[in-house]
């Protein structure tokens, strides 16, 4: 059985790595006024952060179902099945789009997978799936492995304030922080597929230290982990953090990722996060 791996642009897997592992990507859209850009195709993360210096924040939208159908039909020429891995269904309709498109194509079986998270932790699922697919394993074997990985995957992130998330309707339990947006650095996480407040912390430095401690609690239980430092236009800060974390946790493989245009629209520039998954 030959299985294709698809993910969406919010996994933020570098293009070179996608090409090496034969991971297909479907982009979400970023809309500045009347101009529509396909994330990671027409609009890079760097270009996005330059744009928002002089323009109002854009809106975002999921890929049209027709884009999924088109991609799945193309893959049907060479593959028996496709595993389509997407950002959490609690914050986007992208996963449901893959589900619907899967019922509309013939000649290929579509297995949609809700990562229940986003960014490079979502990407970790795609990387693992591509590796297993490369060994010729069945789609069912790959899906079972992805479900196993959910048991030991998590991410925490810090934003400068919650205004973008509130405006975009991407934050649950926002009332817990209303009235104190300027006084705290909110620490957030995914829970039951949606973004929820985790803790209120007074300073950026303390918020990042808290995330480090949360990782420490997890990896102290043993095993090998991969982790990603995720930044919204704060590359130098991310590099410094990686040095610090690498010294603290030598059993963790760290990489640097980023909040691209779609997720950056909702988190705002300056956001930092740390996500991980047990190998």
Automatic annotation (TrEMBL):
Name the UniProt key words of this record, in alphabetical order: Lipid-binding
Q: Which Pfam families match?
A: DegV
What InterPro entries would the database entry show?
DegV, DegV_C, DegV_domain_contain
Annotated source species: Neobacillus bataviensis
GO MF, one term, reads: lipid binding
Ion transport found in the keyword field? no
Do the record's keywords include Ribosomal protein? no
Range of residues in the leader sequence:
none
Q: Give the protein name, as stated in the record.
A: DegV family protein with EDD domain
């Amino acid at each position: 059985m030959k299985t294709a791996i698809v993910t969406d642009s919010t996994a933020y897997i570098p293009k070179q790595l996608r090409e090496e592992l034969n991971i297909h990507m479907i982009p979400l859209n970023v809309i500045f006024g009347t101009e529509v850009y396909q994330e990671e195709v027409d609009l890079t993360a760097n270009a996005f952060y330059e744009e928002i210096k002089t323009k109002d924040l854009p809106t975002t939208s999921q890929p049209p179902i027709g884009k999924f159908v088109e991609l799945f039909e193309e893959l049907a020429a060479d593959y028996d099945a496709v595993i389509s891995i997407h950002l959490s269904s609690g914050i986007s309709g992208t996963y449901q789009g893959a589900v619907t498109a899967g019922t509309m194509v013939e000649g290929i079986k579509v297995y949609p997978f809700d990562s229940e998270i986003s960014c490079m932790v979502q990407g970790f699922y795609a990387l693992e799936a591509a590796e297993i697919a490369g060994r010729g394993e069945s789609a069912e074997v790959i899906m079972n492995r992805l479900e196993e990985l959910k048991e030991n995957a998590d991410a925490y992130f810090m934003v400068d304030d919650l205004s973008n998330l509130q405006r975009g309707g991407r934050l649950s339990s926002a009332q817990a922080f209303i009235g104190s947006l300027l006084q705290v650095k909110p620490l957030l996480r995914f829970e039951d597929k949606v973004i929820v407040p985790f803790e209120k912390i007074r300073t950026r430095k303390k918020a990042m230290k808290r995330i480090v401690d949360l990782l420490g609690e997890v990896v102290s239980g043993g095993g090998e982990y991969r982790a990603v430092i995720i930044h919204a236009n704060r590359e130098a800060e991310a590099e410094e953090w990686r040095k610090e974390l690498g010294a603290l946790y030598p059993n963790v493989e760290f990489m640097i990722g980023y909040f691209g245009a779609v997720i950056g629209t909702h988190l705002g520039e300056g956001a930092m996060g740390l996500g991980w998954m047990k190998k």
